[in-house]
Amino acid sequence: MSKYYADTAIRIAKAEKGYIEKASNKDLNSKKANPGSNNYTKYGVITGTNGDYWCASYICWIMYKLCGSSKTTARKLLCGAFSASCETLRTAFVQKKRYYKKPAAGDLVFFSGTRHSGANHIGIVTKVSGSKIYTMEGNTSSGSSVVDNGGAVCEKSYATSHSRILGYGRPLYDPKPDCKTCIKTKCRLYKSANTVKGYFGTLPVGKQVEFVKDQGSGWSQARAVVANVVRTGYVKNTCLKKSGLSKYRKGIVKTPTADIHQKNKKSSKVQITVPKGNKVTVVSIGKQWSNIKYKRGSITYDGFIRNKELTVR
Questions:
Q1: Strand 108-112's sheet: what is its strand order?
Q2: 3-state DSSP call for residue 248?
Q3: Regions of the chain short of the pLDDT cut 70
Q4: Which residues of 217-256 are buried (b: 16+ CB within 10 A; e: fewer)?
Q5: Bridge partner residues of 134 (DSSP)
Q6: Exposure check for the chain: N or C terminus, fewer CB within 10 A?
Q7: How many Å apart are CA 117 and CA 110, to the nearest integer?
Q8: pLDDT at 272
Q9: 31 vs 16, 24, 26, 42, CA distance in Å?
């Protein structure tokens, strides 16, 4: 099932940078062809208002594309409105109590103007940094001022205190999962740790992987789907989110004592015995054994404890 995320809407909006309006109902899908000032765009086709002001149509088009070319779903994200009128969109957000004074990435920003009361112009917020917002807008032009009939899709920025900002409408996006095991920079899933000689494939940014264990020396063992095949390999820790694979779970010994074995076998060497109530760091959990780290004094023990001897949080 498709999910409708704010960051996806932002990517769609940014991909349209440089599009200019057309002189006639021709070459609408081209960014640069048939330039003119008659307000003809591919965005106006979606709202049925080609030849009219099109900043709101641009926003509707973004949501339309986000929703797999479904006007019905796009209208739901826009709180029931799907219109070339900025004020109609703003009113819908106000009525649904999705209208805010503080911005967030993915919000729609509404601007006042001189043509009529309420919102005369609209954009989508791509980033918020301190007291500044960055936007993508249709039917505008570059520059620091608010331009509500500029003829192009442009990237702009404003102070959040800008006098023409009326407020922000927050579409009904799906919440993005908190991906604690996602790739933060494109990297490879290698066949062996501490080497770059062989790999299964490349993992893109945002790819979710399953943690197996910390391999040490800046590597983590992970499991991921590569070319429709589940592969277990190794990734550099620099590829991972800070809250990702290196974030381990906590365990507490629940039996009177628990032995830390060198290997996940009862017959393997016992490194140290841990009393009940002591905390350990759980690196990974198998069917019968957990790989753990336990620090006593200046020594850290890396070994295995039977699952039945632990309470894992």
A1: 99-100, 165-169, 108-112, 119-129, 132-140, 152-159
A2: coil
A3: 1-2, 177-181, 242-248
A4: eebbbbebebeeeebebbbbbebbbeebbeebeebbbeee
A5: 127, 157
A6: N
A7: 12
A8: 94
A9: 8, 14, 12, 10
Q: What are φ and ψ of residue 118, in 5° steps? A: 80, -155
pLDDT score recorded for residue 246? 47
Query: DSSP labels for 150-202?
Result: -SEEEEEEEETT-TTEEEEE---PPPPP--TTBBSS-EEEESSTT--S-EEEE
Q: What is the pTM of this model?
A: 0.62
Distance separating alpha carbons of residues 78 and 46, to the nearest angstrom: 14
* Structure tokens given for 309: 């001897």
Longest distance between any two alpha carbons in the chain, whole Å? 83
Q: What are the backbone dihedrals phi and psi of residue 141, each rounded to the nearest 5 degrees, phi first?
A: -145, 165
Question: Strand order in 249-253's β-sheet?
Answer: 270-275, 257-261, 299-306, 289-296, 279-285, 249-253, 310-312
Helix axes 6-14, 55-66, angle to 10 degrees: 120
Each residue's pLDDT tens digit, 78-104: 999 999 999 999 999 999 999 999 999
Amino acid, res. 94: V
Place of tokens 């729609």: 108
Q: Taking the C-alpha atoms of 296, 301, 305 and 311 in order, what is their torsion angle to the nearest 10 degrees?
A: 50
d(CA 300, CA 298): 7
Per the CB < 8 A criterion, the answer to whether 151 and 20 are in contact is: yes
Collect all residues with Cβ–Cβ distance below 8 Å to 201 and sequence separation of at least 6.
Answer: 188, 189, 226, 227, 231
